């Protein structure tokens, strides 16, 4: 949050404020941004409310409705700020309401406006934080900061980046939004679907970095997975008629159901076919399958996240690896390749083909990708090839592929696994 430095409080009070902030911060920033029309300024005002809580709650105790308390303080600061500006009347016209300047009527009217539109405000905040005018790194960082309520140092740890780098990225993102005069609004018509794609991409990037960390000593980073799923659930509530939103949430829940089985006792990776499926989380599987059903029930053409969720469901429904419908998975990857042509999708399809039709056919499909420039430094290409060569008994070739893959990955856990597989050849 970055606000604790301004006040000194006991640990219990700070812990209570921190817990409330993580839950309520997005709503507070969204509500205030509706008044001031500036995300960066809205976060500063929300931070002022947080400081007030740190100063007052240790003596007065935590209020019965702490989120409403923080919202009220932040809104009052916003209104005071607007009152001091010459643009106050213009701001009132933008809000579409003739508010009175005397007494408590300003606060009362704004309170009613925000209570009526809090879900719309959250949706506006999502689309603002994920605006294409920002780089993808900036979108991811700003989304975690504004909608995840994560502190700057937490984001830095999650992405193995210096805290100063993350702080500068957040400042630049807010400045660029203001410079581009990005409206605090949900786009309409065709632009909505285009921008929704950016939003979903940001959420899935956050999830993927948590599910398979690209670098460092940890195979998974559960904090990022949980934040991405929380954002997915928020989007599913705000946009219930969009199948891709439900598809993405279902995909994340189905993949996360394997989390307990994906990591061994010493933190080492456990591959899908070697996992103890009794350790899979049945609650998450049931939620994911239900979300998948909701998406199909909307009877709209499937998008890439819905297709990927359908693939994950094939694994989730198989109590034993031998029960997996690999032919259907290969077919779904073919559909996915039509929706989003990608060598990575083709590589995954090759794995499914190998499981459905044998390693020789899978290797043929993998070798067709050997000259693909975008896979030149992608460690999973030699990893998959090594696995197929091993199954075909071509152990010397397999060893070289595993060693090549180990040299390309930046994740220490994955490198160790690949070197062990090379040694087993």
TrEMBL record:
GO terms for biological process: DNA-templated transcription initiation. InterPro entries: DUF6596, RNA_pol_sigma70_r2, RNA_pol_sigma70_r4_t2, RNA_pol_sigma_r2, RNA_pol_sigma_r3/r4-like, WH-like_DNA-bd_sf. Residues 195-295 form the DUF6596 domain. Coiled coil: none annotated. Keywords: Sigma factor, Transcription, Transcription regulation. It comes from the Bacteria. One of its GO terms (molecular function) is DNA binding. Residues 128-177 form the RNA polymerase sigma factor 70 region 4 type domain. Residues 29-86 form the RNA polymerase sigma-70 region domain. Pfam families: DUF6596, Sigma70_r2, Sigma70_r4_2. Belongs to the sigma-70 factor family. ECF subfamily. This is RNA polymerase sigma factor.
């Amino acid at each position: 949050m970055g606000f604790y430095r301004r006040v000194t409080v006991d640990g219990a009070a700070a812990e209570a404020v921190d817990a409330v902030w993580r839950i309520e911060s997005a709503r507070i920033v969204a509500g205030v941004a509706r008044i001031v029309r500036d995300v960066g300024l809205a976060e500063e005002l929300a931070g002022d409310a947080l400081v007030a809580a740190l100063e007052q709650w240790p003596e007065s105790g935590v209020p019965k409705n702490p989120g409403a308390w923080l919202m009220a303080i932040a809104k009052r600061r916003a209104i005071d700020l607007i009152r001091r500006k010459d643009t106050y009347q213009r701001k009132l016209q933008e809000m579409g309401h003739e508010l009175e300047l005397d007494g408590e009527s300003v606060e009362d009217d704004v309170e009613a406006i925000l209570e009526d539109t809090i879900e719309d405000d959250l949706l506006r905040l999502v689309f603002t934080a994920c605006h294409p005018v920002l780089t993808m790194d900036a979108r991811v960082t700003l989304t975690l900061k504004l909608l995840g309520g994560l502190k700057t140092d937490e984001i830095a740890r999650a992405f193995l980046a210096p805290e100063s780098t993350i702080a500068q990225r957040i400042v630049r993102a807010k400045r660029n939004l203001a410079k581009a005069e990005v409206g605090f609004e949900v786009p309409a018509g065709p632009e909505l679907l285009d921008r929704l794609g950016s939003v979903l991409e940001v959420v899935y990037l956050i999830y993927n970095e948590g599910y398979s960390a690209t670098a460092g000593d940890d195979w998974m980073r559960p904090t990022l997975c949980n934040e991405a799923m929380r954002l997915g659930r928020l989007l599913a509530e705000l946009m219930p008629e969009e199948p891709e939103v439900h598809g993405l949430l279902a995909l994340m829940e189905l993949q996360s159901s394997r989390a307990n089985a994906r990591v061994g006792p010493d933190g080492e990776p456990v591959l899908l076919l070697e996992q103890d499926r009794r350790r899979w989380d049945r609650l998450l599987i049931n939620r994911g399958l239900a979300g998948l059903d909701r998406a199909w029930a909307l009877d709209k053409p499937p998008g890439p996240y819905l297709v990927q969720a359908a693939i994950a469901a094939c694994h989730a429904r198989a109590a034993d690896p031998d029960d997996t419908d690999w032919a259907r998975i290969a077919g779904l990857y073919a559909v996915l390749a039509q929706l989003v042509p990608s060598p990575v999708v083709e590589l995954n399809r090759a794995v499914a083909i190998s499981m459905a039709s044998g390693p020789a056919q899978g290797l043929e499909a993998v070798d067709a990708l050997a000259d693909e420039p975008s896979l030149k430094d992608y460690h999973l290409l030699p990893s998959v090839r090594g696995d197929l060569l091993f199954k075909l008994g071509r152990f010397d070739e397999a060893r070289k592929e595993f060693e090549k893959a180990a040299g390309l990955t930046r994740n220490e856990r994955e490198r160790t696994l690949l070197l062990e597989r090379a040694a087993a050849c």
